[in-house]
Amino acid sequence: MTAISIRKETTSHGGRYAATVEGKDGEAELTFTVRAADVISADHTEAPDTLRGTGVALALVEHLIADARAKGFKVIPLCPYVQAQYKKHPEWNDVIANHA
């Protein structure tokens, strides 16, 4: 299994989860905006062609969901990819703010 490394970068109004895949060039990201103290929106997920098919985009969303559970915030899935994954994972219901 290929190792995926994810880090979180934040600003006062949002940030991103950025991921790299061992042995591959490029970086994938999931951007977010802080909507309230306990609510963020997942705005956009993108992976370069060099990382397509590696599972990195799903890993980013799973990391976001785990982070929401650990830190007690809810996620509004504005990003179409996050919305699609949420529909496949109803067990994420506990951290989804606006059921898309």
Provide a concise account of the structure shown:
This protein has helices at 56-71, 80-88, and strands spanning 4-10, 14-21, 28-36, 39-46, 74-77.
Provide structural commentary.
The structure is a single chain. With 100 residues, the chain is an alpha+beta fold. Helix content is 25%, strand content 36%. The chain contains two helices and five strands; from the N terminus they run ββββαβα. A five-stranded mixed beta sheet has the order 1-2-3-4-5. The model has no long low-confidence stretch (mean pLDDT 95).
Characteristic terms for this protein:
100 residues, alpha+beta, 5-stranded mixed beta sheet, globular
Radius of gyration using CA atoms only:
13 Å
Largest sheet: 5 strands, mixed
Low-confidence stretches: none
Give the overall shape.
globular
Q: What percent of residues are in strands?
A: 35-45%
What's the multimeric state? single chain
Counting helices, strands and paired strands, the structural category is alpha+beta
Q: What separation lies between the terminal Cα atoms?
A: 32 Å
Q: What's the average pLDDT?
A: 95
* Count of individual helical segments: 2
Helix content: 25-40%
The H/E string reads EEEEHEH
The strands making up the biggest β-sheet line up spatially as: 1-2-3-4-5
Please report the total strand number as a whole number.
Answer: 5
Layout of helices and strands, plus pairs?
Elements: E1 4-10, E2 14-21, E3 28-36, E4 39-46, H1 56-71, E5 74-77, H2 80-88
Parallel strand pairs: 4-5
Antiparallel strand pairs: 1-2, 2-3, 3-4
